[in-house]
Design a protein that fits this description.
Protein name: Otopetrin 3
Structural class: mainly alpha
Order of helices and strands: HHHEHHEHHHHHHHHHHHHHHH
Organism: Junco hyemalis (Dark-eyed junco)
InterPro entries: Otopetrin
Radius of gyration: 31 Å
Strand content: under 5%
Oligomer: single chain
Number of helices: 20
GO molecular function, one term: proton channel activity
Distance between the termini: 73 Å
Keywords: Cell membrane, Hydrogen ion transport, Ion channel, Ion transport, Membrane, Transmembrane, Transmembrane helix, Transport
């Protein structure tokens, strides 16, 4: 008779089961394939979670290395590996990601006890809004690519038309997933969910890498484009069929593709960061107090000088950018526009640095406690800010060495040197200000909450008292007067016309009065909010809002083709064309992403100030 062996629970399990009531439902982590036996339940949970993260991280690393090898081979050996091969690899990964997202939406997230907790720090509305905006632009970009390939269908392969279609499906599915499930702390199917998320992260990173390399290749061949087109369009040449004809619709596709191209790179990086946060939250348990904590909402109150200065910087920067673009695309670009460009930066960057230093000092003077709660979103924000700033700092140091060693003292080189030094200082001071602000705990004062409640009750009483009782009395008097003498038909028609005119006039009067009352209420509440804030919170909000608008214009200018470091001949002649080209195209995408991610961090600092 074969006896069945029964495993005895350890003393940790006995003590835990004795302290927990019998009717309490507990959710256990699923055991990973590396996990076999552990003496403590909590320790087994941590080990299973670390093992799952390790395996899914290794899976993502292998996918990224494989895709990077394909893209590198395409750049250095176009005969063996072509762009179509890279597109096929990415299409396979995107289809797998779409299937996994559909399975997560229809299966995993609907299981019992699947999403018990939601991370309030993850998936802010401005982050999801940027995903929606950049994703929509990326979909429109692929639509333009499909239209352009359809026009040139004679010399385009099927892969070039199929790849944008798969990309549209992938982007649309991923936008829906991130918009609705970016805060999930999934408690079931941990390992499969982690692997699916890491494959999606790797796919977005490879999409970003391909976009960056394609952009650099386009910039490298831009000077030879006109010569190639003239050669193709020469009479008697059959390759002229592969050149876009001079039609309006074809020109729209070309210009639209070039205009929307930068949004695709930003979309891929933002999606990668959001997917990473979801991956960190898989299997995470959040305390009851932390889950019920109310996040402050974005309100445009308590700021006055920051928006004024920021809007001024944006308007001036837009004018400088348009002047730069007009001169850069002309046949004979002048150095005067580079002088104006560098001057704008030299005026704006010190102001931003001073504001960041003042904000850091105010953070030090405040008596707020540091937020030590585990927060994957904040940890990722800090890592991304520090790593993305390295791109701009790297380019600036290379530029400083070239400008100082060349010993040329003309105005343009001096401005470029000052620009590089100020960029380094601004990035460092802004990072310190943002990181320090992200680690401050937001405490809502009880007096402020009471004041808001009193103000709301006063507004309700004021609206109830302002219901115009005089009109009711006037209508009753008119009814009594009309009831004394029976009116004729003509008098009835005149009375109805007069009543309609009076009703229209009263409605217009009421609308004007209501509009005036709403404006008055808004202005009073704005002034009360501004005066109610302490001077420290007021200055922090002013600084944060000014830095948000400044980083927006500093993101727009390099994103849409303003690259003075590449077009300035000093660094290019010092390092050589190929070396300086690699330096700029390594640091420029990171610098663009740094500005975009700084906006996210500064908005968080503004809201919690």
């Amino acid at each position: 008779m074969a006896d069945k062996k029964v495993s005895k629970p350890c003393h940790h399990c006995k003590s835990r089961s004795a302290s927990v009531p019998a009717d309490t439902t507990t959710i256990h982590y699923e055991k990973f394939w590396l996990y076999r036996h552990c003496s403590s339940v909590e320790q087994s949970h941590r080990q299973a979670q670390k093992a799952g993260q390790l395996f899914s991280g290794l899976l993502a690393m292998n996918v990224v290395f494989l895709g990077s090898a394909f893209i590198s081979s395409m750049i250095f050996n176009r005969v063996a590996i072509t762009l179509a091969d890279v597109w096929i690899l990415l299409s396979v990964l995107k289809v797998l990601c779409v299937f996994w997202i559909i399975y997560y939406l229809m299966g995993t997230s609907r299981k019992p006890h699947a999403v018990l907790y939601r991370d309030s720090h993850a998936g802010h509305i401005w982050v999801r809004g940027s995903v929606l905006l950049f994703g929509s632009c990326s979909i429109l970009l692929n639509v333009f690519e499909i239209g352009y390939s359809t026009i040139l269908v004679r010399c385009k392969s099927n892969v070039e038309i199929l790849f944008p279609v798969i990309a549209i499906l992938f982007i649309g599915t991923q936008i829906y997933f991130l918009w609705h499930h970016s805060k999930d702390c999934i408690q079931v199917q941990h390992n499969f969910t982690r692997c699916g998320l890491m494959v999606a992260v790797a796919t977005n990173l490879l999409e970003w890498l391909l976009s960056v390399t394609n952009d650099t290749l386009h910039m490298e061949m831009e000077s030879q484009l006109r010569e190639v087109e003239e050669r193709f369009t020469a009479p008697g040449n059959d390759t002229a069929l592969c050149v876009c004809p001079n039609t309006t619709i074809c020109r729209v596709f070309q210009e639209g593709y070039i205009l929307l191209y930068p949004f695709n790179t930003e979309y891929s990086l933002i999606c990668s960061s959001m997917l990473y946060v979801i991956w960190k939250n898989v299997g995470r348990s959040i305390s009851h107090h932390h889950s019920l904590e109310k996040r402050p909402k974005f309100k445009l109150k308590g700021v006055l000088f920051g928006p004024v200065l920021g809007i001024t910087a944006v308007i001036i920067g837009a004018c400088v950018f348009m002047m730069y673009q007009i001169q850069a695309t002309s046949l004979d670009p002048s150095h005067q526009v580079l002088v104006i460009y560098f001057t704008y930066y030299i005026v704006l960057l010190p102001l931003m640095s001073v504001c960041a230093v003042v904000g850091t000092i105010i953070h030090a003077l405040e008596k707020k406690e540091l937020d030590t709660v585990q927060n994957p979103t904040r940890s990722l924000d800090v890592v991304l800010l520090m790593s993305a700033a390295l791109g701009q700092i790297c380019m600036s140091y290379f530029s400083i060495v070239a400008l100082v060693a060349s010993n040329r003292r003309d105005l343009l080189n001096r401005l470029a040197l000052a620009y590089s030094v100020l960029i380094i200082l601004q990035n460092i001071t802004q990072n310190i200000f943002v990181i320090d602000g992200l680690h401050r705990r937001h405490v809502v004062a009880a007096a402020e909450a009471k004041h808001e409640a009193k103000h709301a009750r006063r507004c309700e009483q004021h609206t109830v008292a302002a219901e115009l009782p005089g009109e009711e009395e006037g209508t009753q008097d008119s009814v009594q007067e009309h009831s004394q003498t029976p009116p004729t038909k003509e008098e009835k028609e005149e009375d109805t016309k007069e009543e309609q005119n009076c009703e229209a006039c009263s409605q217009r009067r009421m609308s004007v009065l209501e509009l005036g009352q709403e404006i008055r209420k808004f202005s009073l509440s704005y002034i009360q909010t501004y005066s109610r804030l302490t001077w420290k919170r007021r200055v922090l909000r002013e600084i944060s809002f000014f830095l948000v608008l400044s980083n927006i214009i500093l993101w727009i200018m390099p994103t849409f083709g303003s690259h003075p470091l590449f077009e300035n001949g000093m660094e290019r002649s010092f390092y050589g064309y190929s070396t300086w080209f690699v330096i700029v195209n390594f640091g420029l995408p990171l610098a663009v992403f740094y500005r975009m991610h700084s906006i996210n961090g500064l908005l968080e600092v503004y809201v919690t100030a």
